[in-house]
Amino acid sequence: MQIEIKIDDSCMEPKVIILTASMTEEVNKIVQKLSGNSPQILSGSKDEKIEVLEPSELIRIYAANSKVFAVTDKGEYTLRLRLYEVEERLNPNQFVRISNSEIINLKKVRNFDLSFNGTICVELANGTSTFASRRYVARIKKILGI
User: Fold this and answer.
1) Which residue has the higher pLDDT, 96 or 32?
2) What are the backbone dihedrals phi and psi of residue 27, each rounded to the nearest 5 degrees, phi first?
3) Which of 17-21, 33-37, 111-115 is least confident?
4) How open is the CA angle 94-99-103, to the nearest 5 degrees?
5) Do residues 126 and 73 make contact, with C-beta atoms less than 8 angstroms apart?
6) Model pLDDT for residues 25-69, shown as the tens digit of each residue
7) Which residues lie below 8 Å from residue 32, measured CB to CB, with a gap of 6+?
């Protein structure tokens, strides 16, 4: 993707123009982020009660058996959103997708074990270990600065 910024003193308010050959998922994400239509509140159900989940308390969010779950120190919650919708609501500087079915909170990671061939083992603050798929290893290494 190319980004171009033009400074014009006669411009009264910022204007964004997207030039693209077709509407793609990437273009849709950009439009959503720029329009600010994406709510930041996450809610999850547990024991037939719905609770508002603080992003800072989330350890991991994962998909299994056609459902999406969020794990915190208080337990596991079922979300009514798809994983990509949850990802859009979370801060990309704090949360990273490590596979097609999982997002982790970087501030809740104990360590990353790079000794596995082609994958990364992630140990989380609650003692859970999970693996980053090969597809996401380069992105994770870039975030970690390695």
Assistant:
1) 96
2) -65, -40
3) 33-37
4) 30
5) yes
6) 888 778 777 776 555 688 999 999 999 999 999 999 999 999 999
7) 38, 88
Segment 123-130 mean pLDDT: 94
Where along the chain do its domains lie? 42-144
> E-strand spans in the chain?
42-46, 49-53, 58-64, 67-72, 75-79, 95-99, 102-105, 109-113, 120-124, 129-132
The CATH T-level fold of domain 42-144 is: OB fold (Dihydrolipoamide Acetyltransferase, E2P) (2.40.50)
Mention every residue, 6+ apart, whose C-beta is less than 8 A from residue 68: 61, 62, 78, 79, 80, 81, 82, 83, 86
String of DSSP letters for 86-103: HHHHS-TTTEEEEETTEE
